[in-house]
Design goal:
With 466 residues, the protein is of the alpha+beta class. The chain contains 13 helices and 15 strands. Helix 4 packs across helix 11. The two termini are 42 Å apart.
Length: 466
């Protein structure tokens, strides 16, 4: 089936790129950035700067100016993130929350001298015997597209360095924890919303338990910001004080203790990735934590469930969330309806999908840039390129209206994948919307064709020598 959206896809890509022109001082720098971005699409090896330039056909030119995009900091990740953020505003109504996610991510490295690297817990090792590896640590701050039939996507806005104290620190970076970088990112998004005239729009941040447990993270949150995060099953909570002057009320039950209750549960049907799922939950609170008397939160307890998946019974453990409480008409209440909160709580997994696509398929961290600046900026560059390409695809198809499948027996997934987007970009630049066969069916007479193949090869070799 012919895909007629290829020209539209390129049009959206070039419009987004044109919006980034003002962040570069010279036009030739902008065109080099645009060229490297296109080169990312046609690299079939490691995603290094050299491979990108070879893909562009610049094998006989001086490459030093291209490398200076990173070593001389001519690509500014913060200003590029501002442009990507401004492009996302067109897809989020003012009366809806602007949803972001913050999560730490490691970029494995093999050098002990590269800027930003340190010994960190190795990914994929057993919990009872964790290993270590050399890696850079970043904070991924991503925007979540509005939900469509329970689907969403994480699109990187900023990749903030979160190097520990024992890392090889560049001169312009100081050590900090993941939650400190996450707090900076949330404040940055809030300031961008205010600068865009959206002071009244709520910001919803999805975080994991490593952020939720830190009191200083909650204390530093800006106004009109709601946090929804996983909580520990033994979190200590307190009721609101009954008497004036008291900071805390009586001690409340721990989250896991609410599972013993038989009454007070509510069953709701939530659409998750195109499927209806029943969730049994209860909301308790508002509560406060010790050290946070002015930050009430609600506790959301989701019961465990089981369902059949591929003929086997899959068990889901109970989950505990805390969400910021907002004050309306003198009382504390939930910031959004429960169906909205449950739907977005499931979407935080899209951050992990983004990490997998960036590191496994897009080559994040593969650029051989050893300069103290380029070792960091080259990683942020890959995240920015991923965001620009994904945003152009989202503007072309939405989340569910992707291009047709490449085969007759497979019409494509319900939600288009990043590989589908990559294939569509290549087809658009090569102007091959239709699949052209280069391997046709042949019979079983290969031995009879031996002389003909040998003669054909001789003619090709003779033409090459001529």
């Amino acid at each position: 089936m012919k895909d007629t959206t290829c020209p539209t896809l390129l049009q959206h890509l070039f419009e987004i790129l044109a919006a980034h022109r003002d962040i570069f001082r010279q036009e030739r720098t902008f065109w080099r950035v645009a060229g490297l971005l296109i080169g990312e699409l046609f690299v079939f090896a490691r995603h290094t700067v050299t491979q990108q330039l070879l893909a562009l056909g610049l094998s006989d030119e001086d490459w030093s100016a291209w490398y200076r995009l990173f070593s001389r900091q001519r690509f500014d990740p913060e200003r590029a993130g501002e442009q990507v953020f401004s492009q996302t505003l067109a897809h989020v109504p003012v009366d809806q929350p602007y949803v972001i996610g913050a999560d730490g991510v490691q970029v494995p490295r093999s050098s002990q001298k590269m800027a930003g690297t340190s010994w960190l817990k190795a990914l994929g090792t057993a919990r009872f015997k964790a290993g270590i590896h050399r890696a850079q640590r970043f904070l991924n701050l991503s925007w979540f597209t509005p939900l469509e039939e329970g689907f969403s996507r994480a699109l990187a806005l900023r990749w903030l360095p979160a190097f520990p104290e024992k890392a090889v620190l560049p001169a312009d970076h100081s050590p900090r924890k993941e939650w400190e970088a996450g707090l900076e990112g949330i404040r940055w998004v809030r300031s961008q919303l205010d600068a865009a005239g959206r002071q009244a729009q709520w910001l919803l941040a999805l975080v994991d338990g490593s952020f939720e447990k830190v009191l200083d993270f909650w204390k530093g949150l800006p106004e009109r910001t709601v946090v929804l995060g996983r909580s520990a099953r033994n979190r200590v909570l307190y009721h609101l004080p009954d008497a004036d002057g008291a900071e805390y009320g009586k001690r409340a039950r721990k989250p896991a203790e609410w599972l013993k209750e038989k009454l007070g549960w509510t069953t709701s049907t939530v659409t998750v990735r195109g499927r209806k799922r029943e969730m049994c939950y209860r909301v308790e609170g508002p509560f406060v934590r010790e050290g946070l008397p002015d930050r009430p939160v609600f506790l959301i307890v989701v019961r465990g469930s089981s369902r059949k998946r591929k003929g086997q019974r899959v068990r889901y453990e109970p989950v505990f969330y805390v969400v910021s409480a907002i004050q309306q008409e003198g009382s504390w209440c939930l910031p959004f309806p429960m169906e909205t909160l449950l739907s977005w709580a499931w979407q935080r997994w899209e951050l992990e999908v983004e990490h997998r696509e960036l590191k496994s398929g897009f080559g994040l961290g593969e650029k051989q840039c050893w300069n103290p600046h380029s070792a960091v900026i080259s990683v942020q560059w890959s995240a920015w390129v991923y965001a620009v390409l994904l945003l152009a695809g989202y503007r072309t198809w939405g989340l569910l209206g992707g291009p047709p499948g490449p085969a007759r027996w497979w019409r494509g997934a319900r939600r288009w994948s990043f590989n589908t987007l990559w294939r569509a970009y290549r087809a658009a630049f090569w102007q091959t919307a239709d699949f052209r066969a280069i391997w046709t069916l042949t019979g079983d007479n290969w031995l009879k064709k031996g002389d003909w193949i040998a003669g054909l090869w001789n003619s090709v070799a003779a033409a090459a020598r001529a």
